[in-house]
């Protein structure tokens, strides 16, 4: 079982097709719609979280391609906002990637993005809004 996030971009001719229905019923995927912007006759955009078997997901991708639906992977990441950080160090002990590092001389925090495993633990720890979840895709 795998879990992924995608942005689907529908051409106008596919906007009114029951694409989500087919993903669920034909490919046995669990679909969680996170964001939708769909207007009949115009380009539509749907951000979804998908769970299912890898082979079913591959078949679903082929189906989407046959419908001319563009599929863009959504990549999540943690962003540290240095401008908001008060260097309280509350985020340091619970981070399994040891991404937040304290300079023992200045007692200031720095963030090492490359160590992050995306567990999201830190999001609920920082009371100053200095840690954000960001999503990126290659949507046109
Ligand atoms: S918990 Fe927030 S404010 Fe405190 S050090 Fe970490 S990022 Fe900075
Ligand atoms: S998401 Fe997890 S690994 Fe990444 S910085 Fe936050 S606590 Fe550390």
Overall number of strands: 8
Strand arrangement within the widest β-sheet reads 2-3-1-4
* Distinct bound molecules: iron/sulfur cluster
Structural class: mainly beta
Helix content: 10-25%
Question: Your description of this structure?
Answer:
The protein is mostly beta strands. It folds into two domains: 2-73, ACT domain (Alpha-Beta Plaits); 76-136, Alpha-Beta Plaits, CATH 3.30.70. The protein is built from two helices and eight strands. The strands form three sheets. A four-stranded antiparallel sheet has the order 2-3-1-4, with helices on one face. The relative contact order is 0.20. The mean pLDDT is 91. The structure holds iron/sulfur cluster (2 copies). One iron/sulfur cluster is lined by residues 85-91, 100, 109, 125-126, 128, 130-131.
Question: What key attributes describe this structure?
Answer:
140 residues; mainly beta; Alpha-Beta Plaits; two-stranded antiparallel ribbon; 8 strands; binds iron/sulfur cluster
Helix and strand topology:
Elements lengths: L1 E9 L8 H7 L4 E8 L6 E9 L1 H13 L3 E4 L1 E6 L19 E4 L4 E4 L19 E6 L4
Antiparallel strand pairs: 1-3, 1-4, 2-3, 5-8, 6-7
One iron/sulfur cluster binds next to loops.
Condensed summary:
The protein is mainly β and 140 residues long.
């Amino acid at each position: 079982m795998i879990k992924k996030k995608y942005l689907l971009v529908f051409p106008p001719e596919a906007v009114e097709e029951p694409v989500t229905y087919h993903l669920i019923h034909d490919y046995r995927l669990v679909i969680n719609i996170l964001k939708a912007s769909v207007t009949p006759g115009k380009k539509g955009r749907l951000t979804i979280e998908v769970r299912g078997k890898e082979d079913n997901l591959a078949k679903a991708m082929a189906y989407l391609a046959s419908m001319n639906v563009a599929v863009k992977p959504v990549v999540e990441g943690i962003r540290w906002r240095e401008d908001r950080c008060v260097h309280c160090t509350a985020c340091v002990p619970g981070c399994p990637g040891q991404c937040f590092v304290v300079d023992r001389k200045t007692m200031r925090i720095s963030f090492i993005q490359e160590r992050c495993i995306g567990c999201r633990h830190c999001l609920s720890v920082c009371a100053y809004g200095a840690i954000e979840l960001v999503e990126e895709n290659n949507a046109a």
